[in-house]
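Re-run requested by the PI after the first attempt was lost when the workstation crashed. Everything re-entered from the original request form. Ligand of interest: zinc ion.
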Amino acid sequence: MPGGYPYDGQRAVLATRHGKLAVIAPALEPTGLRITTADVDTDALGTFAGEIPRTLPMHEAAVAKARIGMEQQGCAIGLASEGTIGPDPMIPLLICDTELVLLVDDDQGLVIWETARDHGVRAAVTVTRPGQPIAAFLDEADFPGHRLIVRPEGMEPADVPAGLMRKGIADQQALAQAIRDCSAASPTGHARVESDLRAHCSPTRQQVIARAAQRLAARVISRCPDCGAPGWGRVGTLSGLPCAWCDTWIDSAHRGVILGCTRCPFQREVHEQRAAEDPARCPSCNP
Ligand SMILES: [Zn+2]
Ligand SMILES: [Zn+2]
C-alpha cells in the first residue's frame, strides 16, 4: 500500500464542459485513477464572461460541480476544477489566476484539493470599432493562440441579446465580423474585445490548471501516517516568533506548517530551523 497508487484502476468522473480532461488527466496519473468525463453544464454555476454571476465560493462551486458529475454517472469518486482571474489582492495592478483542482471520494468520505496561482495568464481588453487598428492589442492578447470574446460596449453582459456576444473567437475574419455586429448594436458604437478566459480558450490558464492538478496528485499519493488515508498535507501555518535583537513578539513571523489528515484528527507540526525573526521585519527595530 505505501508508495503504491492509492486509487489503482478506480474510476473517477471529471465534471467539465470545456475539455479539461487533456489538461488534468496526465497530471493525475500518479494517483492510479481512471478518469472519464461527464458533460456537466457548469455555466449554471456561473460563467467567466459574467452573464451569469457566480454565487458560490470557489471551493464550494468545485464540490458542487464534482457532485453533479458523480450523480450523472453513478460514480463515488469525482473531480472538478474551478478558477478565478482578477486583480491580485496584494498587488492590484497584476492579474492573478487562482486555479483549484479537487477530488471528492464518497467511498472514504474525503475531499482533497490543491490550488496554484499565477500572474502570467494572458488577459487583455480593448474597446474598438470597425476599421480601427488593434494590432498591438492582439499582440498583447496573444491572438489567435488565445481566443477572444466580443460584445457591444456600454451594455451590461446580462442585457446583451442572445447570440450577439461572440465567444471563443480564433480567427481574424470572425473577429472582424463580431466587431462590426457588436459595434452596430452598441449604444456608443463600439465593441469591447477581451481575452476569453475559459480554460479551453486560454493556454496560459491551462498551464496553471495543470500545475494545480500536479499538486493535487502529490497530495493524494501522500498518506496519513496514522490512518493511511490519502491526502496528507498542509492544513495550516504556524506563525509568531520573537525578534532576534529585541525579543519583541512578531505575530506575522512564519514559524512553520501544520500537516494534517483529510479523514482523522491526526496532525503534525513542522517547524522552521530559525527560532527568531529577522530584525528587518520587527516593528520595534525597524518601524
Ligand atoms: Zn526587534
Ligand atoms: Zn488520518
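Saved to the shared folder this time. Residues 203-220 form the longest helix (18 residues).
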